[in-house]
Amino acid sequence: MPHRKLKEKTLESLYKNTHFNKNELEALYCMYRKLVTSAQSMVPTSAIGQSPAKLDGIDQCTFRDVMHSTFDLVTEEAVLERVWATWERGAGGGEGAIKFEPWARGLSKMLKGTDEERRIHCFSVYDLNGDGYITRDEMFLLLKNSLLKQPGDEDPDEGVRDLVELVLKKLDVDKDGKVSLDDYREAVTQEPLLLEAFGQCLPSKRQAMAKPYH
């Protein structure tokens, strides 16, 4: 694939709307083109030898690999699935591969986001059905995935339910039995360690500071 330069209009727009400088955006674009080209080369031809439709963007498999290897996001598959699901894709959201501009905007929040951007990102990942609340059932699913079953545990689910009640007590500021974004925002502001209470969904600080896209 011939080298493509980032369009000036796109560069200016992203410079205004992300936390990246222009050199970083150019580097991100080079990274993006390499990822797309690599993903395209991995798609097998059909049984009758026809070339597959070209991927136009970053597909889920490539996204997963980059989050693991480049951004040190070693997390439960269920959480990584949710990180992918919350990324901006398609006019209606949730379909297709990730194009460059949403890729840059998403990485801006994950790598250089403000405290508020990071809170909204994590909350969206944990809100499994997207209804604006993290419920007991969602907490149970997230925590059950992240905890290892100990030998001799007769009913590990009981221990997870106990943990859910402990975390709910910390996060449910208005005491209505579920966690809204306002609850989450207030609780995490008071206790920052609660930000990733249900699984890692942000790159490690070391990776974010290292500018791994360079």
Strands, helices and their partners?
Blueprint: H1 8-17, H2 22-42, H3 60-69, H4 77-86, H5 100-112, H6 115-126, E1 133-134, H7 136-146, H8 156-171, E2 179-180, H9 181-190, H10 205-209
Antiparallel strand pairs: 1-2
Helix pairs in contact: 4-6, 6-9, 7-8
Q: What do these coordinates show?
A:
InterPro entries: EF-hand-dom_pair, EF_Hand_1_Ca_BS, EF_hand_dom, Recoverin. The chain is an all-alpha fold and 214 residues long. It folds into two domains: 8-113 and 203-209, EF-hand (Recoverin, domain 1, Orthogonal Bundle); 123-196, Recoverin, domain 1 (Orthogonal Bundle), CATH 1.10.238. Helix content is 55%, strand content 2%. The chain has helices spanning 8-17, 22-42, 60-69, 77-86, 100-112, 115-126, 136-146, 156-171, 181-190, 205-209; strands at residues 133-134, 179-180. The chain has a two-stranded antiparallel sheet. The two termini are 20 Å apart.
